[in-house]
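Minimal example, chain plus Z15.
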Amino acid sequence: GKEHWPRGEEAVWKSALRDVDADSPAIIKSIVNHVQTSLARQAYNLDDLGAYQAAALSVRDNLLVNWNETQLSYTRKNPKRAYYLSLEFLMGRTLDNALLNLGLKEQYRDSVKKLGFSVEDILDKERDAALGNGGLGRLAACYLDSGASTELPLWGYGLRYKYGIFQQLISPEGNQLEAPDPWLENSNPWELPRLDVNYEIRFYGHADRLGDGKGIWQGGQEVLAVAYDVMIPGYGTKTTNNLRLWESKPKRGFDLNSFNAGNYEAAVASSNSADAITSVLYPNDHTSCMYRIGKELRLKQQYFWTAASLADILRRFKQQGKPIRELPDFVAIQLNDTHPTLAIPELMRILLDEEDLNWEQAWSIVTNVFFYTNHTVLPEALEKWAVPLIEHVLPRHLQIIYDINLFFLQAVERKYPGDRERLARMSLIEEGQPKQVRMANLAVIGSRKVNGVAELHSDLVRTTILKDFVDFEGVSKFSNVTNGITPRRWLDQCNAELSDLITKTLKLEKEVWLKDLFKIKGLLEFTEDAAFRKEWWAIKQRNKERLAHYVQTTLGLTVRTDAMFDVQIKRLHEYKRQTLNILGVIHRYLTLKALSPAERKKTNPRVVFFAGKAAPAYYIAKLTIRLIVNVARIVNADPDTKDYLQVYFLPDYSVSLAEVLIPASDISQHISTAGTEASGTSNMKFCLNGGLLLGTVDGANIEIAEEVGESNVFFFGHLTPAVEDLRYQHLYHPVPLQEKCPALHRVIEQISAGLFNDAEVYEPLLNTIRQNDYYLLSDDFDSYIAALAMVDEAYQDRDEWIKKSIRTTAQMGKFSSDRAILEYAESFWNVEPVTVKKK
Ligand code: Z15
């Protein structure tokens, strides 16, 4: 009977199943072929997951052809290449992106439909590759997309974690719980194991000096690094670059350990064995290792990855038969934060101990190969490694670091004779118990260029944390590359309807404006076109409904879609001030409660969404989640207010969830204490999708306002230069909260009084504000509330709001990651595009 027949069109299946030269279309044949061969499954019981896997394998075949041609043309042309070393690549899903980049989406849509499947359902079966924590890891992913799309010979190097960022669960009380993310469970069609590409990586052992700066390192433990390649297709190009991820394996096969899923932190720290090195992504964002357990394993991850990547880069370079001194003419290595800084002493070790160069030759090569990007000025995020730990794990590298430091401090002493304080500040070694190696200092002196990630941040880098280095080396080494985002994923893919409307309106091929994002400026002339505005708004509305549908099906909650959608989604951190947002929500709730029903009716209904993960050991951040969840519970259940205010904490924030949330937002919040958010990149994503920005004068918010016009953003709060002084006032001239900010005091006392359950639980969180209020909530609260009121008012004038929305999208051209990656290529790396011919 029929139930034994595959889904879809009988004739299509029949002809594809019959044999290889059947006359069915190539895509259908390829999918059916993968069902039968690669998956060894029968058409008769194929489910959505199987269909996803077969479609993915079929797309992979296309990518492989391009990948091979790209690598072949690189080998033939031998251009200078760039390498992006990042401990995190937050890739999200691949199939949709690959289909769009290959221009095959519609063909696959038709083909899978004929086979009885919907392309959306199939795409939804893919698990995110979540090998990152947040902004830094997602930036790396956007840069790979842009590198391939601009035809740059750019490879990424990272780690193939068996477990990505933890899965976030919310307990009945509202606490965050962490579960492992076994993302490789269903086999991963996007990676190519290269078991033949492997390197032996040494740890521990002993190092002897041989004079002349050279040395020898022997003994200890050797671990195998095995390559897994992930293909990175460019948009509308044949270029398909490579992301090479390393997996650790024991050199001899008896060194196994088991992952203890019960206790996340302990499991992270548990083992000393070879496979433990790439078993799990560290879930700490903005926290250097020093206060954390498991730090030896993290150090081993960093060395394992940098050593394997360098060995691979050098092997590729050497295959060309060039002398080693020409390395900087063929290789540029971008260090994504200080995480890969061990690459600097590692390259020194190779050049001195294995290539037999002298110190000057080696140092001159090193300092022309590396480039360092700083992503934060927060002191707790600056990496420092205990000297005894490095000595134990990497004894030869410690010697080299000491030698680098000696030569460096001698040079500083020559320029500033007798300035001991300056020497102490600039030293690679921080005195103390124990002594620590300052990785940022090492990254700076070992690199050709240093950059921050937005103008304000780069200024702060130059004038605060790296001021001494600017004085010493000259300012030209220290520059800025403002971050960007790929408009393919963050507009075309996540908001296809808006993308189509833009294409139609601009009368350009979408391949044109998606590769030259400045072209969307052409939308400006349509702000006065009422029909266009109507379409623009209708798309926003459908995106809200898509989000509401997601919340309904995953959480069983009904979101009203006729309200303003207000979104704050990012890692939980005190500096990002989710607490300010939830306190503002409570303020709104209390204000609504005090209004008469008639007055309430005049208010602008608002739905506030939060999502984000807290580091498992970050107590205050976890308390903030708990408060948000409990506020949501009380507020959403209150019949007086529920038509005007709803609050949701969406668990398990991810790239895929961002792709649903961002297109649905009317307003998004980027409200860090001034001077703390280096750039931010989700701010760019929201604005590109026509969401307005409510933010502080911080990071890339400033440049967004410059581009879209200040009248189209909502700014509030103190500016960066005021922050230091305000903190000083908090410490030495504290004013009671009740006097300083009565509105905030009232909110806090309501929490304390138990309005949101479990009064005592929140005291440590509330005390951070009552006590020294380091992140200045009490200084910014009033202007925050005023800004929220302005947002409400602006939203009432619907036509004007839509115009703001269009103007915002239209002027986001600067924030394409294509622009950013080309700045790196041109002004730092001196790497040029290589065109791979289309056949
Ligand atoms: C991280 O995601 C960022 C900085 C860090 O130092 C670490 Cl450890 C993780 C973020 C910044 O907070 C954010 O402002 C920036 O946009 C992003 O890096 C990419 O540069």
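Residues 48-77 form the longest helix (30 residues). The longest strand covers residues 191-203.
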